[in-house]
Amino acid sequence: MSRLELRHVRKAFGGLDVLADISLSVGAGEFVSILGPSGAGKSTLFQLLTGAEHGAGEMFFDGAPLDDHGRHFAFMPQRDALMPWRRIIDNTTLGLEVQGVGRKAARARVAPLFAEFGLVGFERHFPAQLSGGMRQRAALLRTVVQERDMLLLDEPFGALDALTRAALQRWLEQMWRHHRWTALLITHDVREALYLSDRIYVLSARPARIVREIKVPLPRPRDPTAAAAPLASALEAEILDILLNPQPFKGHDDD
Amino acid sequence: MLASSSTRPRRVAGFLAKSAPAVISVGLLLVTWELYANHSGIKPTILPAPSRVLEQAILNRGALIDNAIPTIRATLLGFACSLSAAFVFSVLVDFFQPLRRALFPVFIVSQTLPLVAIAPLVVLWFGFGLAPKILLVALVTFFPMLVALVQGYEATEAEIGQMLRAMGAGRWRVFVLARLPSALPYFFAGLRISITYAVVGAIFAEYAGAAKGLGIYMLNAKNNFRPDLVLAAVAVSAVLTLVLFGLTVLLQRIAMPWERVGREPSGKGRRG
Ligand SMILES: Nc1ncnc2c1ncn2[C@@H]1O[C@H](COP(=O)(O)OP(=O)(O)O)[C@@H](O)[C@H]1O
Ligand SMILES: [Mg+2]
Q1: Residue A207, Cα to own-chain centre: how many angstroms?
Q2: Can you tell me the distance from the alpha carbon of A31 to that of A152, in angstroms, rounded to the nearest whole number?
Q3: How many CB atoms lie within 10 A of CB A154?
Q4: Distance of alpha carbon A82 from alpha carbon A160, whole angstroms
Q5: Is the pLDDT of residue B134 over 60?
Q6: Virtual CA dihedral for B243, B248, B253, B256, nearest 10 degrees?
Q7: CA dist B36 to B31, B33, B42, B67, Å?
Q8: What is the pLDDT of residue B3?
Q9: Which entry of A155, A193, B37, B127 is 20 to 30 Å from A50 by CA?
Q10: Number of residue pairs across A and B with CB atoms under 8 Å?
Q11: Taking the domains of chain B in order of start, what are their residue ranges?
């Protein structure tokens, strides 16, 4: 049963076609990635989902048209979007505060999660005092604690160094196995998509359309060292081939 | 508390090291002036030496303080009015963009009015009381503060706004939670500049007509051929400006504690 379903979603900014034709679905408890080159329009898709922008086409959540945008998604923007003036604890309770949860109750709800997110002892720190990896974990904590139906993660590890990114990918995979969030992840990192996802939608360059849907039948817990395993590397090669050798599209292409 | 007692001497030393260039340049200026005034043969009634200015300032300290108080009052009251008005208008402009196009040309024109011409008129219309001073201080500080605030709101990270909207926040929540705090650095930058304008504005207003105040004191001293007293009053206004400037810096440190921690990471921070 799919929770989120998009049918022929399109979006243009002025004369610039950004999303040409996006149809996809995300099932309950499924981890799905959208993989595409930079500038393809991935973040724009999240803007449509969160209601920041309006496009053409149909969007459904649990079968109902997606109109009240605030309700279903916990959104983590591309940059961590931590507020520099709020201490980590107050950054993580932001979503609850907006929902109207009292300050004390909100803190009580996030406090037990600090251990799991590796942030114990940093509750009273300001974001500027944290490393990039910790900031991303704090941003993720702020996102999941909202307990929405679905997570929208926009390149959560894009700005990190390779080592930190690998560590956080392992950590997120492990977290996901415990919590089974329904999640849609945007990334331009093929291995990240393979490592974390149940399914991957591969996007073309702008104007974006879905050029391939790939199931990732790798067993969980995912073994990071098995990245070189035959199936994983076959999938990686397949995706890279799609991304690097785009088929000429026979539709209305301006360039 | 052990930590603070051991870092204090280092902080004091740091402060002295930082202020040394300023002290040296001002000191050199005063020494040059002193030597020139004493050895050039120019009469002290034309160019008094700094030592004489200081001496006369001390002698006339009663009158100087007496005249400084109305100036301080006019500066602070005028600036408070201007700040409140700038804040209200900045919020209005942020919420209703068309207002910006309607109001900004008027405000920009208000900035081009020459104070020399306007000050006597304002005094003519509003008398020798506090009102014309407040008006003139507001005239010179309102627009810089408005621009600082509006620019500050616009410096809000787009992602933060989008995230708050997705959380379900309305425009007002987004303003209070994100736009207002984002504007703080701009606000304080504007505050530091405007507070110096405010003192100048108040003195100008008094110069154009007042019962008491540093401005009218300067005018009277000039008319009595006492440049030493004019300069003594100038020195008082300079000290006043510096103190107010220092207060804004202090206020910023108190209002924005995250600014400091970012630069000097505490022991526990900065690990991955
Ligand atoms: N609000 C906007 N107005 C105009 N153009 C936009 C806007 N948002 C995004 N774009 C354009 O859409 C394209 C896709 O951007 P984006 O969705 O951020 O790409 P991605 O996240 O895949 O890197 C870019 O060319 C960008 O300039
Ligand atoms: Mg993006």
Answers
A1: 20
A2: 10
A3: 24
A4: 15
A5: yes
A6: 170
A7: 8, 5, 9, 30
A8: 45
A9: A193
A10: 88
A11: 47-257
| Mean pLDDT computed over every residue of chain B | 88
Nearest CA in chain A to B178: A83
Q: Which helix (H) or strand (E) holds B234?
A: helix B227-255
Index of the ligand 1 atom closest to the CA of residue A14: 4
Mean pLDDT of B27-44: 90
User: What's the pLDDT score for residue A252?
Assistant: 47
The crossing angle, in degrees rounded to 10, of helices A132-144 and A162-179 is 20
d(CA A41, CA A59): 17
Say if the Cβ atoms of A131 and B271 lie within 8 Å.
yes
Lowest-pLDDT choice from A180-194, B101-115, B136-150, B197-211:
B101-115
Task: Give distance in angstroms: CA of B84 to centre of ligand 2.
Answer: 40
d(CA B250, CA B255): 9
Ligand with smallest separation from the Cα of A34:
1
Q: Are A88 and A164 in contact (CB under 8 A)?
A: no
Secondary structure element (H or E) that encloses residue A4, with its range: strand A2-13
The 10s digit of each residue's pLDDT in A29-78 is 999 999 998 888 999 999 999 888 888 999 999 888 887 655 789 999 98
Q: Is the peptide bond before B9 cis (omega within 30 degrees of 0)?
A: no
Domains, in order of start, for chain A: 4-32+41-207+214-221 (3.40.50.300)
- Atom 20 of ligand 1, nearest CA residue: A39
Please check whether residue B205 is in contact with residue B122, taking contact to mean a CB–CB distance below 8 angstroms: yes
* Rounded-to-5 percentages of helix, strand, coil across chain A: 35, 25, 40
What ipTM does the predicted assembly reach?
0.88
Ligand 2 centroid distance, CA of A182 (Å): 20
CB count within 10 Å of CB A204 equals 21
Q: b/e string for A94-105 if b means 16 or more Cβ within 10 A?
A: bbbbbbebeeee
Sheet holding A183-187, edge to edge: A64-65, A56-61, A2-13, A16-27, A208-215, A199-203, A31-35, A183-187, A150-154, A73-76
Q: Look up the pTM and report it.
A: 0.86
**CB distance B133 to B78 below 8 Å:** yes
Give the C-alpha separation, A28 to A64, whole Å: 15
Other beta carbons within 10 angstroms of residue A65's beta carbon come to 9
CATH of domain B47-257: 1.10.3720.10
Q: Which atom of ligand 1 is nearest to the CA of A78?
A: 21
Q: Which residues pair with A34 in a beta bridge?
A: A186, A201
Instruction: Measure CA A122 to chain center.
Output: 25
Q: Determine the Cα–Cα distance for residues A70 and A152; give it in Å rounded to an integer.
A: 12
* CB of B103 closer than 8 Å to CB of B163: no
